[in-house]
Design brief:
single chain, alpha/beta, eight-stranded mixed β-sheet, 8 strands, 41% helix, 18% strand
């Protein structure tokens, strides 16, 4: 990594289908760390900008190097093609195709994945296929199956976008807010998406897993993290009190403490094993 470009917004061109994706990315935290890189995977309406200062402050406080990027359709990355709808397999595509290409482009090996919401599901799907290539996974407010609560909240978000100013708010964080919002909202409200379920894929994950969720999560019940533990008995589960769907906003200090402790203790155990 070039220290002079650390913290600068950069772009990676990734081969995708019959064309190229341009993904914005940014290195955060310390430029040299004794720990593997932590890759931050944002939520369904997220981007580099919507993480705000959490990745930088978390990594800086604990001596980590982090990579934050915006998936295509979000932030300053390539928007969706006009009229394109995400397939119900969109998270699998991100995990199995886009992430490996990005890691190869940036020469990232054995990272930690720190995913939030859809990003947490993508992290788990990557781990299910490429577990031996990871140091570990932090899944914050993950989705492993579709719940009525989730669908109701996403329907509510549609109304906010259409009539109550959510579009103008998202325009602060995305070059094309319609690309970001409708890509996410349309696929989650697709009737075929109700059958989406990744529970049976989780059992192949062999790396350390921390699943963490707020007790007032408006987008999922605690069955999401308990379901992970049923499939991965070694997974650590943390429920944060007085916390909604976005722990990095509602309980940033508590989240940072739990994640840093898990990563450092897991790495110590890994070092002893070798």
């Amino acid at each position: 990594m070039n220290p002079d470009r650390h913290h600068a917004l950069q772009f990676a061109d990734i081969a995708w289908r019959n064309g190229t994706l341009r993904l914005e990315y940014q290195w955060v935290g310390t430029s040299h760390s004794e720990y593997p890189v932590i890759v931050f995977l944002h939520e369904g309406l997220g981007s580099i900008a919507l993480w705000k200062n959490f990745p930088e402050s978390f990594c800086r406080a604990h001596g980590f190097t982090g990579l934050v990027f915006s998936r295509h359709g979000y932030g300053q990355s390539s928007p969706r093609a006009a009229g394109e709808r995400w397939p119900t397999s969109f998270m699998h595509e991100q995990a199995h195709q886009v992430l490996p290409a990005l890691f190869a482009h940036l020469d990232i090996t054995s990272p930690w994945l720190f995913g939030h919401s859809d990003g947490a599901s993508i992290a788990l799907l990557y781990g299910a296929r490429f577990s031996q290539q990871l140091s570990g996974i932090v899944a914050a407010a993950p989705h492993i199956f579709v719940e009525d609560l989730t669908i109701d909240s996403i329907r509510g978000a549609r109304e906010l976008y259409l009539s109550q100013g959510l579009r103008s708010k998202l325009a602060r964080y995305h070059a094309d807010p319609d690309s970001a919002f409708w890509g996410w909202n349309d696929v989650w409200l697709d009737p075929d998406f109700r059958a989406w379920n990744i529970e049976n894929e989780l059992a192949t994950i062999a790396c350390p897993v921390l699943a963490i969720q707020g007790d007032n999560d408006e987008y999922g019940t605690l069955e999401q993290v308990y379901g992970i533990q049923r499939k991965i008995p070694s997974a650590k589960i943390v429920v944060l009190e007085h916390c909604g769907h976005s722990a990095h906003r509602d309980q940033a200090e508590a989240l940072g403490h739990e994640v840093a402790r898990f990563i450092t203790s897991s790495q110590k155990m890994e070092n002893k094993a070798h």
